[in-house]
């Protein structure tokens, strides 16, 4: 089974959103105070209660195409360190289960790969999916709302997840 790495949203993109660059819908990110527990897609940790955060539309795909799902995400309004703990399950993944789904090199869903997966089985399931030559990467998405949580890639020597 291949080694995996949990990959957050790219740091440069998070920095741009914090400077109020337009999101995937061309809108300014919304600035709010956290009620606690919202998952930051950059540090992959929960956003503590009372902490400023941004809500924005995010498209974790390089181009527009029919499978390029776009949806709401949260990030800390202030700078945070990009998640860089390799194959360690990120702390924000604290629900009982998530959708784990493979995507091809053309950034389209590879049919038959998506499944609601128990959180403690995400690493194993992602590794199994990435054994297939047709799977380029995996998404972890909310099992309740389908919101993008993070990406999982094959680990390569010297790779970092901060993109």
UniProtKB/TrEMBL annotation:
Species this protein is from: Allorhizobium terrae
Protein name: DUF1203 domain-containing protein
Xref: InterPro entries: DUF1203 (IPR009593)
């Amino acid at each position: 089974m291949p080694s995996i790495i949990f990959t957050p949203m790219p740091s440069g993109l998070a920095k741009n959103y914090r400077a109020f660059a337009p999101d995937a819908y061309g809108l300014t990110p919304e600035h709010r105070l956290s009620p606690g527990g919202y998952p930051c897609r950059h540090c992959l940790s929960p956003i503590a209660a009372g902490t400023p955060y941004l809500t924005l539309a995010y498209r974790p795909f390089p181009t527009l195409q029919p499978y390029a799902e776009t949806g709401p995400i949260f990030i800390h309004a202030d700078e945070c360190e990009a998640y860089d703990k390799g194959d360690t399950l990120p702390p924000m993944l604290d629900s009982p289960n998530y959708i784990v789904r493979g995507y091809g090199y053309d950034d389209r869903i590879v049919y038959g790969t998506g499944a609601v997966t128990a959180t403690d089985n995400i690493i194993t399931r992602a590794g199994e999916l990435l054994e297939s030559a047709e799977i380029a990467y995996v998404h972890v998405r909310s099992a309740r709302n389908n919101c993008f949580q993070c990406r999982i890639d094959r680990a390569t020597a010297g790779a970092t997840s901060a993109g």
